[in-house]
């Protein structure tokens, strides 16, 4: 083997190493673009007194009671239509509640507050007591009555309580859809308005079928 051949081997090895290093740097640049590329900074979290945070807190509480009432009536009647409505409310509102609590966590905001309910709407609501914290919410006495009712009586009481619950919830959602600062809350609230108004109409028909009104 000549000296020229022997000397070419380390040069080939060194050249290959340089090529691999260059390819690695290019790949790194593609995966991790430099800060000069103009990447947008994350949006600031809504303030603790914002519509977004206030709505997420209050509606999470409001939704929780709707889920609770739906679980109660599910076990108090065998009516297919009422049970289907209860399941829909459980699934929809439990999912929405999870989203709102998740956003509060992401924003670094507490999930509860000492501020009066619905203060974010620009007015203070005085709870009517007996466990009813906000407009539309059933009292503890009403929930106890639902727990012992059966059949048609349970259906009618549930539909009346849930209609009042939805009406107040839709009003809250309309306010948030109009005044919230984040797309997340605006879009979710607008969807709540549509969904709850549709269920209010459905429950009016169901009550009429049972010889009652809201």
Describe the structure.
It is a single chain. With 214 residues, the protein is mainly α. It is 68% helix and 0% strand. The protein has helices spanning 3-31, 51-74, 80-107, 140-148, 151-179, 183-209.
Low-confidence stretches: 1-41
String of helices and strands: HHHHHH
Helix count from the secondary structure assignment: 6
Q: Whole-Å distance between the termini?
A: 101 Å
Structural class from helices and strands? mainly alpha
| Mean pLDDT over all positions | 85
Percent helix among the residues?
55-70%
Radius of gyration, taken over Cα atoms and rounded to an integer in Å: 29 Å
Oligomer: single chain
Task: Give a quick summary of the entry.
The protein has 214 residues and is mostly helical. Helices cover 68% and strands 0% of the residues. The protein has helices at residues 3-31, 51-74, 80-107, 140-148, 151-179, 183-209.
Name a few traits of the molecule:
214 residues; mainly alpha; 6 helices; 0% strand; disordered N terminus
Question: What's the arrangement of secondary structure elements?
Answer:
Elements: H1 3-31, H2 51-74, H3 80-107, H4 140-148, H5 151-179, H6 183-209
């Amino acid at each position: 083997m000549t000296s020229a051949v022997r000397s070419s081997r380390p040069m080939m090895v060194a050249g290959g190493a340089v090529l691999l290093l260059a390819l690695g740097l290019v790949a790194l640049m593609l995966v991790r673009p430099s800060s000069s590329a103009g990447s947008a900074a994350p949006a600031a979290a809504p303030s603790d007194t914002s519509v977004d945070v206030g709505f997420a807190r209050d509606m999470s509480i409001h939704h929780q009671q709707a889920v609770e009432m739906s679980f109660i009536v599910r076990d108090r009647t065998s009516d297919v239509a009422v049970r289907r409505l209860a399941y829909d409310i459980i699934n929809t509102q439990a999912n929405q509640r999870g989203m709102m609590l998740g956003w509060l966590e992401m924003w670094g905001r507490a999930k509860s507050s000492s501020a009066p309910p619905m203060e974010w709407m620009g007015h203070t609501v005085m709870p009517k007591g007996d466990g009813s914290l906000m407009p539309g919410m059933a009292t503890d006495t009403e929930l106890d009555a639902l727990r012992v009712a059966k059949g048609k009586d349970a259906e009618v009481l549930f539909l009346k309580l849930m209609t009042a619950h939805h009406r107040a919830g839709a009003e809250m959602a309309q306010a948030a859809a109009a005044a919230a600062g984040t797309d997340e809350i605006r879009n979710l609230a607008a969807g709540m308005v549509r969904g709850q108004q549709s269920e209010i109409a459905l429950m009016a028909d169901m009550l009429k079928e049972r010889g009652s009104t809201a």
